[in-house]
Amino acid sequence: MIKNVLFITADQWRGSCLSALGHPVVKTPNLDKLAASGVLFSQHYAQSAPCGPSRASIHTGMYLKNHRVCDNGTPLDRRFTNIAQEARQCGFDPVLFGYTDTALDPRDLADNDPRRKSYEAVLPGYSLGQGLFDEPLAWVQWLADKGYATPEDAQCREIYRQFDDQHKEDKRGVGYLAAPYSAEHTETAFLNEKVMQYIDVKEDDPWFIHLSWLRPHPPFLVPEPYHSMYQSVETEAPVRHSSLAQEQAQHPYVKFEIDERLAQKPHHGESLLPTINDEDLQQLKATYYGMMTEVDAQMGRLLDFLTARNLLESTLIVFSSDHGEQLGDHYLLSKLGFFDQSYHIPLIVRAPGSEWDDSRGKRVSQFSENIDLMPTILDLLGATPPVQCDGYSLRPFLESNADFAWRTCVHWEYDFRDILQGKPEQRFGLSLDECSLAVIRDYDYKYVHFNQLPALLFDLRNDPDELNNLAENPDYTEVMLGYAQKMLNWHMRNEDRSLTGWLFHKDGPTQRLPIDRNTQPR
């Protein structure tokens, strides 16, 4: 029986980076253990990037085309419900530890409300257990209380480089230096401690926790022993064309993104240049993998805590991420565009109780999406997912049910509008609402549709690294047309359905709910 919910998102975690999936470098023994006692979804994808749009999809169960959170700072319309508000209807008091990267509907805020200046408000429906925002004030104070020399509040974000002169002098931002705080005092450890304190206070009362870990999001910095855990020579070569010019020639949008990053200055590893040398890139990867293993260790700590409190077998655990990380592939860092590296992410679901034993250790290779998380959690709690949800419950996979239809492709979207400076509009001569792309990806092909820019097509069976665009190849015209039609079908099938199932007639109103949403995704 599910009494409690622990819904965890790590930030910027590539989907291949689990040792349970055979990654050649990174080790994640505790997440592997969780997967062995739950269900691991190996083809799981985010629906948008960066953090704000992706988390809007997670918490509303909706594609970007419907919730319309286009960027960090785009408000989420108040008319949409979310996982926290729905969990309240199930009798929980959902509590947030970390962040949801939510900008609130401006129609609900006074003109002088400080939340108009931030995309880091708490998603409506959540109580705040412990925030960890861009200025990590609470964590810095926690470190100060433990005797660390920390920066002033006004410079809190500089904690990653201002502990001492050695770190002040390191301007590379590629993970060469170990963090000057211990592995027991990371941001992940800080939030874990707050979560465990909260659970102890709850005693036997049920709880619903959303734990949003920052790592392995940049800056690329981790303490020992994780800093030295992976030698740079162990990391794999980047996936990319042999020259920057070849990569830029693939598509006007790719050239635009690389050009923009060439013009930027590094900032604590968050906007590194595409021309970063191979040595630095290898070190960056080694640090990124170390950050993952540090998070994994904290996952183990949390699982041990739940076991010691006899809570593991009454707690639904969901672990995923908001999006991936380019990590130098295609000469890019961060999360953006259309490449798989920015959207393929992990998902592990562990439901408590003997009724799920037949599926424990199962690995699902069918496609799943972040919009499925809200319907899955609600379904397992015995609630009906709201009509707004574009996603579907993953419960049939936990039941080892082999007799059900399921989607054969995934979709994601990326909106590259620039509200403040309008750079893409100026570069391409587009309007604000034309700066977008949508992706349909299955096991055979990936089709990328741009609003007004040329489309892309990749043969994933023969070109898994997405290096050879076939969109202009006449031999693939029929394939292009087929995927364009599939894209249009997807768009039409997922229009806003809030009231479309209602009909007023002489015998009174009738509401017809959508077809069983557990068995009909495509």
Q: Can you tag this structure with a few keywords?
A:
522 residues; alpha/beta; nine-stranded mixed β-sheet; four-stranded antiparallel β-sheet; 14 helices
List the helices and strands and how they pair.
Blueprint: E1 4-10, H1 29-36, E2 39-45, H2 51-60, H3 64-67, H4 83-89, E3 95-98, E4 127-131, H5 137-145, H6 165-169, H7 187-202, E5 208-212, H8 244-248, H9 252-262, H10 278-308, E6 315-321, E7 344-345, E8 347-350, E9 362-369, H11 373-380, H12 395-398, E10 410-415, H13 423-428, E11 436-441, E12 445-450, E13 456-459, H14 477-493, E14 502-503, E15 510-511
Order of helices and strands: EHEHHHEEHHHEHHHEEEEHHEHEEEHEE
Main pleated-sheet profile: 9 strands, mixed
Q: What's the number of helices?
A: 14
Straight-line distance between termini: 31 Å
- Report the helical percentage: 25-40%
Describe this structure in words.
There is one protein chain. The protein is 27% helix and 14% strand. It has 14 helices and 15 strands. Strands 1, 2, 3, 4, 5, 6, 7, 8 and 9 form a 9-stranded mixed beta sheet that branches. It has a 4-stranded antiparallel beta sheet with strand order 10-11-12-13, covered by helices on one side. Strands 14-15 form a two-stranded antiparallel sheet. The protein starts with a strand and ends in an 11-residue tail after the last strand.
In short:
The chain is of the alpha/beta class.
